[in-house]
Amino acid sequence: MPSRQPPDAYAQAVRLLGEKVRALREARGLTQEQLAHSTGIARNQIQNIEHNRNNSKDSATGRPGPGNARLDTLFLLAQELQVDVTYLVDPRCPVDPIPESVGR
Hints:
Strand content: under 5%
Mean pLDDT: 85
CATH class: Mainly Alpha
Distance between the termini: 48 Å
Helix content: 40-55%
Number of domains: 1
Order of helices and strands: HHHHH
Shape: globular
CATH architecture: Orthogonal Bundle
């Protein structure tokens, strides 16, 4: 059975999510370890989000599958990175410029 490929819009949103998380984390002066500690998300998961992958393996290629962060993870990241969650998930929002911090 052929594997299902995600639609282009989804793939673009996932790729941009990783770019946004990394850009925000670096702009806020955080390491992956610090972001992991402050959110309770495993550092490995943050790394996977930033690199658009997950821990599952594609059966055909053996490579990591595409990232797919859970909704609660997205809200935790948005809160800690001080942005609205829509910035993270909306592919129409560009990575640059980095949004200013929203109130905490």
